[in-house]
Amino acid sequence: MVTQFHKIRRFALILMLFWTAGITFSFLWFYSHEQRTVVAIARAEARATYEKDTLYRRWATRHGGVYVPASEFSPPNPHLTHVEERDVTTPSGKALTLVNPAYMTRQVFELADSQDNLVRGHITSLKPIRAENKPDPWEAKALRLFETGVTEVSEVQDMGGRSYMRLMRPFVTEAPCLKCHATQGYRIGDIRGGISASVPMEANSAMMGEVITGAAVSHGLIWFLGLGLIGTGARVLGRSARAIEEREERYRTVADYTEGWEYWQGPDHSFRYVSPSCLELSGYSREEFYADPELLHRIVHPEDRTSYEQHVRDSFCGVPNPLDFRIIRKDGEVRWIAHTCRLVYTGSGAENGIRGSNRDITERKLASEALREQAFLLEKEVRERMEREAELEAKNAELERFTYTVSHDLKSPLITIKGFAGAVLKDIEGGKLDRLGGDVGRIMGAADKMSALLSDLLELSRIGRIVNAPSLIDMNLLVKDVLGQLGGPIQQAGVEVMVQPGLAEVWGDQPRIGEVLQNLVENAIKYRGDQQKTRIEIGMRESAEGPVFTVQDNGIGVPAQYHETIFGLFNQLDARSEGTGIGLALARRIVEFHGGRLWVESEGAGGGSTFCFTLGTGPQNPLETGIKGIKGIKGIKAL
């Protein structure tokens, strides 16, 4: 792993290399500059020498040469025989010979050659008169360059094992020069040769060596000082980097390895830090959150976005309340988040954004939801059980009443039969046959009553067990059929029956619904009272439950305290009336079996009664839809 410490060491090493390269470059530049300086000094000295030589040569040329005593050192110049007065004698008899400028310059150069530390000179030409003036290769090259227009040639060369700065300039033919060189064909302005000056480099090189040595020492000291400073800085920075890395390691250990999703948003709402766990929780990487500060806002579930935005505003105002909200993961999955945050501050106390902490509570939410659902189901089950227990208690009480009533009502006809049967036997034994017909009639009446009672009980017990296929019932036709079956009793009682047209169609067991209508019409006829004109109205009205069918009469009415009692087994408001008291109970069972309800509306005695009932409206089987809403079906089955 490349740490900051290693980066600092690598940077320090690179910096040392650059520092070494810089010092080396500086020294090499200084060395090169000094070399150029020495060469420039030598060249300047050579030019000065050349100018000096040219100056006294020009002086001699202007004077046409000079006369010197003829001697072994200066014998008469054989190349000047064409010059008149080459040799002259002074009045004192001293022999003088003419020394032209070239001859004079050559003698001076020969004198300088005898001394090692002096500047050497050489007069030369591509057409030398004397063999000694023949150019060497370097001079020949320079002379050819002069012919191309070059006015000076200089170069450092080794001569006899020593280094010299050689400089050469051309001789241009002037008028005084023709005195000696006209015979060679030169004209004024021609290049007729040149003078080379050779300056020894030893003295300047020795001086340069001292300067270079001093520069090398100073550069070395500066190099060592720079390396020391770089090394010291690297060590100081390395220690600081180690301390920072240790703090960052603690920070990463705490922040990066949290189970939840941690983040820090700056005052501009941009993410300054996002823990890696955001990927597992949201499906988005920390780099995506860094690149898009609005990403968290967008993945909040639309139904929770308003509360989340308000929470963010409150948090930046210093009121960070915890919040549970949903997010939509990158893969589309919805997860629940428990979110808390708080303001953070800089070292100087200035607000520096908020730090948020998110925890995945989806499983907890699902478990809580499951617990609530289980609690609801348990509560529902307890409620249903309590209802069943209450229903069972009611059925037990009803069964007890039923048992008592059956035993009482069945015993009464049996007592009648037994009593009159004994009377018949006594009459037969006594020969009193005139009362025999009446007693037998009473016995048969009691037997008929018992038979009717047993038939009603059998019919009541069949509710819930014998079910016809459900069908769409046209209530208009069904009412017409029922009234047709009851035509005799209706006509005998003088009852006027009115039917509302346009009754609704319903689904159900048509024969059973016909029994309900028949029982309600018979009940209205039976309890018509002393009305001079009995009227029964069969109709319908709309309600939230659907169509409500009504059978209204102007009979004796039902007091409010008996509105529920009359639907019990064997309950009759008028004991003198015919019947067993099971008809209304049977009608209610059938209606409830169809998912509806049956009730009575009456203002009391003498106010007439309106029996109302509703039925299920769907095409489903009444056994499947009505049995859950019927109270007492189990009790009826038990009968």
Which terms summarize this structure?
PAS_fold_3; alpha+beta; 639 residues; disordered C terminus; five-stranded antiparallel β-sheet; Beta-Lactamase; Helix Hairpins; 19% strand; Heat Shock Protein 90; transmembrane; EC 2.7.13.3; 50% helix; 17 helices
What does this structure look like?
By secondary structure, the chain is α+β, with helices and mostly antiparallel strands. The strands form five sheets. The chain has a five-stranded antiparallel sheet, sandwiched between helices. Strands 14-16-17-19-18 form a five-stranded mixed sheet. A four-stranded antiparallel sheet has the order 4-7-6-5. Among the domains are: 258-360, PAS domain (Beta-Lactamase, 2-Layer Sandwich); 377-462, Orthogonal Bundle (Helix Hairpins); 469-639, Histidine kinase-like ATPase, C-terminal domain (Heat Shock Protein 90, 2-Layer Sandwich). The protein contains 17 helices and 19 strands. It has helices spanning 4-62, 101-113, 137-147, 178-181, 202-256, 278-282, 286-291, 295-299, 305-316, 362-430, 436-462, 475-485, 487-493, 510-526, 583-593, 622-625, 633-638; strands at 66-69, 87-89, 95-99, 120-124, 153-159, 162-172, 191-200, 261-265, 271-274, 323-328, 334-345, 351-360, 471-474, 495-499, 505-508, 534-543, 546-553, 598-602, 609-613. Helices cover 50% and strands 19% of the residues. The chain is rod-shaped. It is an enzyme of class 2 (transferase). It comes from Geomonas propionica. Its EC number is 2.7.13.3.
